[in-house]
Amino acid sequence: RRGTSCRRLRQKLKVHPFHMESWNVLIKDAQEKHIDVSRKVYERLMETYPTCGRFWKLYIEEELKCKNFERVESLFQRCLLKVLNLDLWKFYLTYVKETKRGLPNFREKMMK
Q1: Entry pTM
Q2: What is the pLDDT along the chain (112 residues), one digit of tens a residue?
Q3: What is Dmax (Cα atoms) for the chain?
Q4: How far apart are CA 18 and CA 4, in angstroms?
Q5: DSSP labels for the chain?
């Protein structure tokens, strides 16, 4: 039943790509699934809202839950320079601090 309604919403978005209620339902559904299943939804969301920091952050958080660090870093590379969003940048800095602090010269590199 839920799959049918999600299919219907995806069809609706083909006609009305900025229909926020449809996106909200699809995002909620995607968050309940493994990222390998929901990645297409997030990619389509990013195509529709390429400068929305909140949506980039949601997508990156889902990849991070599964420890897909290469994908996380690729997503940050895709969005950081074109999305001027304070929460997204803070999230990036936290990610770098938490994942890279054990690397040699980390402290010096962060000071630059």
Answers
A1: 0.85
A2: 566 788 899 999 999 999 999 999 999 999 999 999 999 999 999 999 999 999 999 999 999 999 999 999 999 999 999 999 999 999 999 999 888 777 666 555 544 4
A3: 54
A4: 20
A5: -HHHHHHHHHHHHHH-TT-HHHHHHHHHHHHTS-HHHHHHHHHHHHHHSTT-HHHHHHHHHHHHHTT-HHHHHHHHHHHTTT---HHHHHHHHHHHHHHHTTSTTHHHHHH-
